[in-house]
Amino acid sequence: MLAVGGLGGIALWSPLPTQAQAGPAPSAQPLAALPLAAAPAPLVRGLPDFSQLVEAVGPSVVNIRTTEKTKVSQAGPEGDEEMQDFFRRFFGAPPGALPPGAMPPGAAPGPRRGGPPRGGNGPDEETNRGVGSGFILTADGYVMTNAHVIDGADEVYVTLPDKREFKAKVIGADKRTDVAVVKIEAAGLPAVKIGDVNRLKVGEWVMAIGSPFGLENTVTAGIVSAKARDTGEFLPFIQTDVAINPGNSGGPLINMAGEVVGINSQILSRSGGFMGISFAIPMDEATRVSDQLRSLGRVVRGRIGVQIAEVPKEIAESIGLGKPSGALVRAVEPGGPADRAGIEAGDIITRFDGKTVEKSGDLPRLVGNTQPGAKSSIEVFRRGQSRQLGVTVAELEPEKVKTALKPTPSAPTPVGVLGLTLSDLSAEQKVELKLKGGVRVDKVEGASARAGLNEGDIILAVANVEIGDIRQFEAVVAKADKSKPISVLFRRGEWAQYALVRPGTR
After folding, report:
1. Where in the sequence is the signal peptide annotated (predicted)?
2. pTM higher than 0.70 for the full model?
3. 4 phi and psi, to 5 degrees?
4. Residues comprising the binding site for substrate?
């Protein structure tokens, strides 16, 4: 259990210094002669009143109940049935595996309400699976929620604030962004207003409406704690301190103008309940996904076929990049769009279609939002220079598992300056590994071992110079300044990465 310091949670404030505390008193003057200083405008005018927001947006927030069909025994002890009913009513579906930080769609829904009657005489029984939230996108019945709220459900029921309940049709769900759209047969519904996420500021008041633990139409409020928080491949989450609990999933995050700016999706928690950190899907990303789900039933994303990583500060300085920005290419899919465009492992992608790639997480979003078939420009940093390349974006497909290649070493040649014993790659090995050059590490010790190099690694470049064979490796190392760290680009299995070898350290 976490504890918050302070006297029962009451903040203690020190008084502002008086004039006597601030410095020596000015010379005596008549009171009438003293100028009256204008009082500064207060930065905070008072706590907000959310009642009008609740009245405006509340009718657009819905409860989403999911059910599943389960096999039931034709006969059994009455006590067992009563115990099962008790757990159904007060604890919901049996606990299952959840991703770290993700909210279950309804870990503890309340007593069963409405919907189809529970069976008992047949082989199948429809039982409550979980409870979540959602909000009305359009007046004709499109509703947005989280993909994990409806995942695995046999039936989805939407309950409006006026207690009308509808069986919903799942239009589409996108697990990568955790966005789903369902449709109910109704008209004249109060749709939400969509806000501009780019205008949302850290420290701004926001409000959430949802069904935590099955308690419908629950309102909580807080502030935006951070923006563009990277916790997912395609989403820069909005972080808030709004109280979000299981059952809030899929509900709206609302700004003070009554506009929806996000979908409450995840919490960071060790206990499964709210601990002060909540994450919401930005509404601009969610709208882009929902538009495709409604028109295509799925989301189409672009891909270029690279595996990437962040660029460490020391590596950026060592190779002449300067600040640690961009996306380090660790592997290139053979025959993929990036391979055909000439992108190589070890390149650092700094711009895509004219947009700066500040961190590696920016690239999947930029590429993913590009229409497959589009011709895009890419700027890469390679061997101390920037290069402009063109790439034709392909459509993202399920990730394929690749087997790491293990080249057979040729006769080893010792290179003692960096503590490495190396061997040249044969022509067959270069073809198999799809490499133009490089040397294989057969033994590692000293400075290179401390830098993280392992036996079997393939060294591709040293000190920003591409390596073709051992002779070139020796020449580059001989000219390198041994008093400074030497950057080594190497490939391990399918992955390329950098290491800094410090020859002068022990």
Report:
1. none
2. no
3. -110, 125
4. 148, 178, 247-249
